[in-house]
Design goal:
By secondary structure, this protein is mainly α. The protein has ten helices and no strands.
């Protein structure tokens, strides 16, 4: 895909949705970090149903740690893998208190040292909470990178590096949100909505659908 097409794709995303936002509910960097940890292999909707009560009881790392692992589990048991996630949340809160004064660090290396936090989660926190031009490659972005193909790669890291290289600088801040929303609701893994896609004519996918899927 040539640079002109890539630029046109992001120009359209920007016109259609100038201020994209993620779908996880949060108010502080700490709440975002916990919500992202809980969202692994779960839907944002399921996380959003559980976190209001959790954050009311434990708005910060100290209060969360005071709940204990079983206490955290009681709030998040409707989320998949809740036991392992409660363990990560407890350990992360302990690390935040012992190493960062209870605050979420604005630093990739420090974030990735936290239990349950890998490169993708760190990129989400850096981008959304702290405004860094990072791109978190999840299954949606990996699929779009190779399908459109706006940034083809064999691994999530390859796709991330190529997106950082190919996305025009003025669009980097919101690229993650535009792509994840496009992958979630339009360019789906199965039965993509090609006929209604706003970048259909720019996309180079060879197996486009030609008619809307029945409701």
């Amino acid at each position: 895909m040539n640079p002109a097409k890539r630029r046109a794709i992001f120009e359209r995303f920007a016109r259609a949705n100038p201020h994209p936002k993620g779908e996880l509910a949060w108010q502080t960097p700490f709440q975002l970090l916990i919500a992202v940890i809980l969202s692994a292999q779960a839907t944002d909707r399921s996380v959003n149903l559980a976190t209001p009560a959790l954050f009311a009881a434990a708005p910060g790392a100290r209060e969360m740690l005071a709940l204990g692992r079983e206490g955290i589990e009681r709030y998040i048991r409707t989320i998949g893998l809740f036991r392992s996630k409660a363990k990560h949340v407890e350990q992360t809160c302990a690390a935040l208190l012992s190493e960062h004064g209870g605050e979420v660090p604005d630093d990739r290396a420090a974030l990735e040292r936290l239990p349950g936090v890998g490169r993708k989660t760190a990129n989400v926190i850096l981008n959304i909470a702290f405004g860094h031009p990072t791109i978190a490659v999840d299954t949606h972005l990996f699929r779009l990178g190779n399908r459109i193909p706006i940034a083809p790669g064999k691994t999530p890291l390859e796709v991330e590096m190529r997106l950082l290289k190919f996305v025009p600088p003025q669009y980097l801040q919101h690229a993650h949100h535009w792509l994840i929303l496009h992958g979630r609701y339009v360019c789906k893994a199965v039965r993509p909505e090609c006929p209604t896609c706003l970048i259909n004519d720019l996309c180079e996918y060879r197996r486009k659908t030609i008619a809307p899927w029945p409701a």
